[in-house]
Amino acid sequence: MNLKMPDLSTTGSPIKVTRWLVEVGDFVERGQAVVEVETDKATMEVEALGFGTLLRQLVPVGGEASAGDLLAVIGDVQTVSSTTVSGRGDTNYHRDFLLTLYERMVLVRQFEDRVKALFLEGIMPGTIHQCQGQEATAVGVCAALRSEDFITSTFRGHGHALAKGLTVQEMLDELFGAVTGCCRGKGGSMHIGNPEKGMMPAIAIVAGGIPLATGMALAFKLRKAEEIVACFFGDGAVAEGAFHEALNMAALWSLPVLFVCENNLYGASTRIDQVMKHTRVSDRAASYGFRGETVDGNDVLAVYEAARQAADECRSGRGPVLLELQTYRRTGHSRRDPCHYQPKEERATWSANDPITRFAQALLVGGNADLDDLDRIKEKIDAEIERAVEKAKTAPKPTVDDLLTDVYAS
Q: CB within 8 A of 383, min separation 6: which ones?
């Protein structure tokens, strides 16, 4: 959570920080006065809008700030330290790599928000299943893969596609049904992908991509190739027979497949604890004889590190790995879902654990970025998306003759 300077000055002049009322490391309650400031008219206190630990004071005593400027970073110490300043253990990351992760997560969020607006305006055809709130899962996993590795996806695949390297333009063209789209206008939102970039077109059938990934991994092993395949699916897929059959086969033949369960707590509108007695998905790997791990899916570096280790295991012939990434979607199952089944308290808790906000705070605290860096990234992405939207609106549509292309039988 960021503590920003409120608009206190009647003349718009800078506001001076006169005294910090809490020190770095102190726990801050919602509504607690954190810093004393002086305007051109009076001295007053700025209160915290949430709770957490004061991680960094960004304006020293005697320093000045304008309305909207960041005064302090408030959050969870363990969250920030594990998220990125130095990663886990002795691992350190280059600033460019960290900013690339942040940029890719922001790209997914802003792409999804823009697409949602286009659907609400009635401009874009079809339907959508979006992933706001789950950006760290796709970005963290795909950052751990090589360019020649593959992924399989679900009907909620926009984030996976962007994380694997598909462009905003080819995806928006696809969503508008244009022949210039990544699937030539025939896949749409629920079947997005591009095999040339290592993403098979997504499968909308729940758990449908899991046996496909296992089959691809078998092909890689028979060819003695070094590629692996990462298979994304939701917690709802765990109850499908295809999940169990594919995991069993992958285990028997020690196939190079990374099973990635994005556990966002809900299969459509049904909460996981209503359909599973034991809700720790990763434990299911043990029944097939391979390793499973549960990871904080809103911590992009925790996801990256777990996926990198799992990918190394798969590539070295040690068989499959099941990663359960605990996350939360902040939007409905589909565009017509108002999400009333998610309790307000639960939504608030997960909103406070937003993966992009967490990572931004960690970058600021660790000195790997400042607010100008983060603003430039957002502005660049906004401009890229808007250019792509305007181009996609007028992109050429398929013709009747295209009905018989790209099919196996006619």
A: none
CA–CA gap between residue 172 and residue 35 (Å, rounded): 45
Pairing of strands 257-263, 229-234: parallel
Report the side by side order of strands in the sheet with 2-4. 2-4, 70-75, 52-57, 27-28
How many C-beta atoms surround the C-beta of residue 312 within 10 A? 13
Rounded to whole angstroms, how far apart are CA atoms 298 and 80? 12
Query: What is the DSSP secondary-structure string of 180-199?
Result: TSTTTTSSTGGG--BGGGTB
Alpha helices in 253-370 (DSSP H): 300-315, 344-351, 355-365
Per-residue pLDDT of the chain (410 residues; tens, 9 = 90+): 678 888 776 666 788 899 999 888 787 777 788 999 988 778 889 888 777 788 878 888 888 888 888 888 887 544 343 343 444 444 589 999 999 999 999 999 999 999 999 998 999 998 999 999 999 999 999 999 999 999 999 999 999 999 999 999 999 999 999 999 999 999 999 999 999 999 999 999 999 999 999 999 999 999 999 999 999 999 999 999 999 999 999 999 999 999 999 999 999 999 999 999 999 999 999 999 999 999 999 999 999 999 999 999 999 999 999 999 999 999 989 888 888 899 988 988 898 899 999 999 999 999 999 999 999 999 999 999 999 999 999 999 999 988 888 887 65
The β-bridge relationship of strands 64-65 and 321-326 is unpaired
Q: How many helices (H) and strands (E) does the chain have?
A: 11, 15
The secondary structure of residue 278, as a DSSP letter, is S
Q: Are 139 and 159 in contact (CB under 8 A)?
A: yes
- What the chain holds in terms of domains, given with CATH numbers, is 2-75 (2.40.50.100), 95-393 (3.40.50.970)
pTM for the whole structure: 0.79
